[in-house]
Amino acid sequence: MKDIPEELKSIIPKYNIGDIIITESTNEIITLKLKGHSSSKDLIGKGIKSEGNFCSFEAGMLAGIVERMSNAHCFAQEVNCGLQTQEDACEFMIVFQKD
Question: What is the reported pTM?
Answer without folding.
Answer: 0.87
